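cache lookup: miss for this entity combination. No prior model stored, computing from scratch. Input as submitted by user K.M.:
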Amino acid sequence: QKEVEQNSGPLSVPEGAIASLNCTYSDRVSQSFFWYRQYSGKSPELIMSIYSNGDKEDGRFTAQLNKASQYVSLLIRDSQPSDSATYLCAVRDNDMRFGAGTRLTVKP
Amino acid sequence: GAVVSQHPSWVICKSGTSVKIECRSLDFQATTMFWYRQFPKQSLMLMATSNEGSKATYEQGVEKDKFLINHASLTLSTLTVTSAHPEDSSFYICSAPGQGVTEAFFGQGTRLTVV
């Protein structure tokens, strides 16, 4: 069974701080990795995608991938209250599987 | 990005009845559709993968006779919850993968409540 594991949280950070979200996956052949943000009762929305080892930055978001360690992370710099949501790690090869999600709260 | 339209967004049905959920790809052809279920405060659980013109592949523990999936065309996949019971109440979401191993595009989700 393919597994995607996330630190379950909840994670609470003050406004302006860095939020760090982590994810590990079990299937070594996985090729694509994604971070989605989901608000309660809504569909997930894509935040970041990463396909190769290293860092990928997009505005306040940085995704990090280490295929040897089967690890992917998301850093949110200068966290804002509007970033409060559940963040889902997703791994894709023939299908797309999600971690359990980490609930992030950014306190003003 | 590509658009997947899911309908209805919410439905309330009586126990024992069937409910059909539709997902349409509006501006692209979706040969594959992923169907997920999400209970409150839990993650998206993959139920099945449908492929146009062939039988769906169900995840372990998902009853294929209860959750009927049809993918008769390149733009439409349907999930029918048959003989629904209160424990089937959940948030159902479809998702069509992009080309290759790129992201997947989600429908808006359907909140099913069985009373």
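stored under new cache key. Chain B has a mean pLDDT of 92.
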